[in-house]
Write a structure and sequence with these properties.
By secondary structure, the protein is mostly beta strands. The chain is built from one helix and 52 strands. Among the domains are: about 5-245, Sandwich (lipopolysaccharide transport protein A fold); about 590-770, lipopolysaccharide transport protein A fold, CATH 2.60.450.10. It has a 52-stranded antiparallel sheet that branches. β14 (about 255-270) and β15 form a beta hairpin. The N and C termini lie far apart (about 105 Å).
């Protein structure tokens, strides 16, 4: 996920540090006003002064220490009502222990004893400064250096002694070493110990990356010790924080204990990489350490995170907690309650990769997610607790229907992140499961289960899944095929599923085992390598078939297999061997079209195609027939086996060679045994030859007989051979006892010595008989 924990830390730290300045400033100001004006100035001005005095000076001491001093260039008391006026006033407050050196000055102060009002005419300057050396110096001299001076300037200050309320409608400006600010209008209640800045509150920080705090109004109180900002807005270069209400709770020594933000809480940051990150919450609690450092953020009523740019992400949770280390860096993020974390690429113009499996939107949905930082600003890893799932959705191409999503579930997920806070790997266990869309919109979903899985995400701009590896009792089911293995690896880019560790793939009629099986989930093609074995379980026998007619299984072994779904051809290569019952076919490569019941085989220089049948003579005796050639084709619906190139057929009758050979088989017959109960019980022996036709350089060699010609027709039942030749070359039979016979058509039988000769051309038939 493109999630930056620095974002949360920064805007919270801005709020924490700057609010400290505001609280200390106005709390000090309130303390000075309550002590100096209410208790000091009015009390002493009440002395019955009925004259104008130059160089007025007044002080109050306690236990040998001066509490405050008041100096005025001129003091005037009017007899009417005892009204008094001080001009060019400077007041210094030392505090009971002498640890302060606060000063206030103004051009003109009026006091009305009847109403209890004190009014400062014109500008009032206030400087608040701690004096740590004061308790050690009996002379109460000013501090040698002013390190943390707080300066306040205002005008039109009005204070009523009876109500204890001081107000001004004018602008209030303040300055501290770290910042300066202002507000318009202020009300201080010395009885309730509260100070309210009525409007236009603004604080501007200093430093290399200055911070600005703006609030509609602010209220500071002593009991409870807190500061409340309405419509608070904090900005710093590329960062912003907003809340309808921000409350800062203070310790007795004016340190921040915790803060609470409520109403449209929002933080944002624009990163150098071009990413823009935002956090939204209805409320947030900020817990601090004793050193005014952020320790934890709690968002108890829901949190939303958004990131935009080259990598877009979105996250929500019902509750979120962020923990910080001693260096004020987010170290852990805890999200719970219907947690959703998603990332996707922004919408763009259609490209060649649009809609591909590698460009995917991803969403993590879990009961609980805990994320841990690896280095400052970067997530290291995250773990889930409770129910959790990953949803992967390929982006659709322009005009294409929305693609289906893939759902990954497991008992627990552990994710790692790269330097850009994008998810790099995902480990899930136990009970890992992947449910993805079927091959067509109406097809059932494909389901894959295992003990564990590992997902590796593509780190280029696509941000999709690079590979998914499942281990331990892997089971894949797409409603058509089922696959079992110790390990499976799926790559969305080519939609290839690779099974290793005793893989086994089966459907309703087929089972295949091999060392490695690869399945293309897009095309439906399958590939197997190493000790391949396939068993075709025939659903029903074929009454008109022969070699593939039995209802018994067909077995094929080879070194490799390529099964193309589009053509329905299964190509076996490398010492391929196919058999059903006693029918056997061996070749370097065999192609099987199961639906059409068609076989093709290709031989090599060192190893031809070989097959075996039987023939039955007139007496019912069966004998085997072996045939080899370079190329073989068989069509079961025609019961025809065609051989080409270097054809050799051998049997107990002799040896036949030719360029081509067609073998026509008899229909498979049900067993005659009593156990046969249905038509599915086919003859388990080899297919029987009905007749054969050889053509092209025919040569038949039998004991005591040799026949040559262009075409030979053999009928198995009566052991009959019919041989003819070409116009330029008559067929010929050479017999060791009866000599040589030629003619246009020669007919002879296995167990008979006679040869029938027919001649249709001008050339006469010739028989040469040897004479002893």
């Amino acid at each position: 996920m493109a999630f930056d924990p620095r974002q949360t830390r920064r805007w919270l730290l801005w709020a924490a540090s700057l609010l400290v300045f505001i609280v200390l400033l106005f709390y000090g100001y309130g303390r000075w006003r309550s002590r100096s004006i209410m208790h000091s100035a009015p009390a002493h001005l009440a002395v019955n002064v009925e004259r104008s005095s130059q160089g007025f000076s007044l002080s109050k001491s306690e236990n040998g220490r001066t509490l405050f001093t008041i100096h005025a260039a001129k003091a005037i008391e009017y007899k009417a009502g005892g009204h008094a006026q001080l001009q060019d006033v400077n007041i210094v407050i030392y505090g009971k222990t002498g640890d302060r050196f606060d000063q206030i000055s103004g051009a003109n102060f009026d006091y009305d004893p009847a109403s209890g009002d004190v009014v400062a005419h014109g500008e009032v300057q206030i400087d608040l400064e701690a004096n740590t050396e004061g308790p050690l110096r009996p002379d109460q001299a000013p501090p040698k250096e002013q390190k943390n001076l707080i300066h306040v300037r205002t005008s039109g200050l009005f204070f009523n002694q009876k109500s204890g309320i001081a107000t001004t409608k004018e602008r209030v400006d303040f300055r501290i070493p770290q910042a300066e600010g202002s507000a318009v209008g202020a009300v201080m209640d010395t009885h309730a110990n509260t100070l309210r800045l009525q409007s236009a509150v603004e604080v501007n920080g200093s430093g290399p990356d200055p911070t600005k705090v703006v609030a509609q109004s602010a209220v500071l109180s002593k009991d409870p010790r807190q500061a409340v900002l309405d419509a608070a807005h904090i900005t710093q270069s590329a960062r912003d924080f907003d809340a309808d209400k921000l409350t800062v709770f203070l310790t007795p020594d004016n340190r921040i204990d915790h803060m609470h933000a409520s109403g449209n809480v929002h933080g944002s940051e624009a990163a150098e990489s071009g990413q823009h990150n935002e956090v939204h919450a209805s409320e947030a609690e900020f817990l601090m350490t004793g050193q005014n450092k952020l320790r934890r953020i709690v968002m108890p009523a829901g949190a939303v995170m958004d990131s935009s740019g080259a990598q877009q992400s979105h996250g929500t949770a019902q509750r979120a907690i962020v923990d910080f280390d001693d260096q004020q860096r987010a170290s852990k993020i805890h999200a719970e309650g219907d947690v959703h974390l998603s990332q996707h690429k922004p919408e763009q113009a259609p490209s060649k990769t649009a809609g591909s499996q590698s460009v995917q939107d991803m969403e993590l949905i879990a009961d609980v997610v805990d994320a841990f930082a690896a280095t400052p600003g970067h997530l290291g890893h995250a773990v889930t607790t409770g129910a959790a799932r990953i949803e992967l959705k390929p982006q659709s191409a322009a005009g294409a229907p929305p693609p289906g999503k893939t759902v990954v579930t497991a008992g627990r997920f552990n994710a790692t992140f790269d330097a850009l806070n994008r998810m790099r790997t995902l480990h899930g266990e136990p009970d890992a499961k992947i449910v993805s869309p079927g091959a067509t919109p109406t097809a059932p979903p494909r389901v894959s289960t295992s003990q564990m899985l590992d997902v590796v995400f593509d780190q280029n701009q696509s941000g999709g899944v690079d590979s998914i590896v499942q281990k331990g009792r892997v089971h894949f089911d797409d409603s058509i095929h089922q696959a079992f293995a110790d390990q499976g690896r799926y790559t969305p880019a080519d939609q290839m599923l690779v099974l290793t560790g005793s893989p086994r793939v089966l459907d309703e009629e087929t089972t295949t085992t091999a060392d490695v099986v690869r399945m293309n989930r897009g095309t439906g093609d399958a590939f197997a390598e190493g000790d391949v074995k396939t068993t075709y379980r025939q659903s029903k026998p074929q009454p008109n078939g022969a070699m593939l007619a039995s209802g018994n299984p067909v077995h094929v072994t080879a070194h490799s297999l390529v099964a193309a779904k589009s053509t329905g051809i299964a190509h076996y290569s490398g010492d391929a061997r196919l058999w059903q019952d006693a029918n056997i076919l061996e070749a370097p490569s065999i192609d099987l079209q199961r639906e059409q019941r068609v076989l093709t085989a290709q031989g090599g220089v060192t190893r031809p195609v070989t097959s075996e049948f039987v023939q039955t003579d007139s007496k019912g005796q069966q004998s085997p027939v072996h045939i080899s050639a370079m190329h073989f084709t068989y069509m079961d619906d025609q019961r025809k086996a065609h051989y080409e190139d270097h054809v050799v057929m051998t049997s107990d009758q002799g040896r036949l060679t030719s360029s081509d050979l067609d073998i026509f088989l008899k229909p498979a017959q049900p067993r005659s045994a009593p156990s046969a109960s249905s038509a599915s019980q086919q003859n388990s022996g080899p297919s029987q030859i009905d007749h054969a036709i050889a053509s092209g350089d025919v040569l038949l060699v039998q004991p005591g007989r040799r026949a040559t010609g262009e075409r030979l027709v053999y009928t198995a039942d009566n052991q009959k051979f019919v041989l003819n030749g070409t116009p330029g070359q008559l067929p010929q039979v050479d017999d060791v006892q009866r000599g040589t016979t030629r003619g246009d058509l020669l007919t002879f039988f296995r167990d008979e010595d006679r040869v029938l000769v027919e001649s249709y051309s001008e050339r006469p038939a010739v028989t040469r008989t040897p004479v002893k």
